[in-house]
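Notes on consecutive records. When two proteins share a document, each keeps its own sequence and its own token line. Never mix them. Below: protein one.
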Amino acid sequence: MNRTELLKILKDVSLLKITPEEAYRRLQHLPYEDLKIARIDHHRELLSGIPEVIFAKGKAPDEVVTIARNIFKRHGRFLITKATKEIHKRLRIKGARFYERSGAIVAGNPSDKIGDVLILTAGTSDIGVAEEAKVTAEFLGSHVETLYDIGIAGLHRVVEHLDRFKKARAIIVIAGMEGALPSVVAALTDKPVIGVPTSSGYGMSLGGIAALLGMLNSCVPGVAVMNIDNGFGAACLAHRINILKR
């Protein structure tokens, strides 16, 4: 439940459109609903602006499906990350879309997107993480555009987009290998830059640790850094930055 939904219920009670008993029925699962296998936090969006999202990895497919169906029943939308094609098939929810490259499943995106979140990747191998970020930010209500494969191996590919950087409210920069692209972008714009290291790269990239350390040690001040492959976390931060002007 979000602020708009709660205010509508209260207004409907005051206008006698619904009874107090009906309002209670709609609110009875705040702040959470106990399914035994999980406690769904229906109150989270009201408190933080970010609804509860289902992390599928490590959960049995039936558990993910049960949680998703209950969220969908209450809110008409949900987002699942790190999911599989099997989970998507078992959901049987009309309109639920599966993004195979990132493992995201989404249902019920808001029709109106606001602001401007820009997502960049250093290479094509980073697109899976970028897709998770894009799906998440759009699910939260941000307008998103992407620029892929503009890594520093060809620096001219970066500088030709300087005008586009100026228009964005927040920029997510996703890179593996040595993870240098967020520093380069942050040196060329005054917009908030969120770096996401990915696990792509050869042996001594250590599954993304080299890129993570590179971003954390950026000599450009003010670069935010997410965990390895965490496109979801980057999207949540970018969305919060994006809506500050709302």
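Protein two starts on the next line and is unrelated to protein one.
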Amino acid sequence: MGYVLAVPRNQRIPTMVGNSRPDVLAANAPALAWKRRSCGNGAKGPRLYDWAVASLPNTDDGYGHWLLNCRSITDPTDLTYYLCFGLAGTPDEDPIRIAGTRWAIEECFQTAKTEVGLDHYQVRRYDAWYRHITLDMFRRQPA
């Protein structure tokens, strides 16, 4: 199953010459590797970022691995990194579009947290969650 997974800048990435970090690989990317593309439409139109895609060592089973780098247009030091896996020959636009859905998913999570009263509450243990959700369900019962 293919995926696009956000990773931290210190994640170890396999390369042809050993392991490296996404921030190091992005810093060494040639200027021509960065292309301005949209990752989807937002409230104010296309969400444009600079993207660079690097192929990683592949398995020989018809699948490929990539490192997808996203750079803010207004702040070039603001970078996001994604590990990607999918069918060999997948166009660059596909993982970019999938990475762009992250914002919609985070918005859904925030809405869900607000709906169940977790927007200002952090659950660290099961018993705290159980008490919170029980009180929340009790509070929402019709009169």
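For the record: The longest helix spans residues 102-115.
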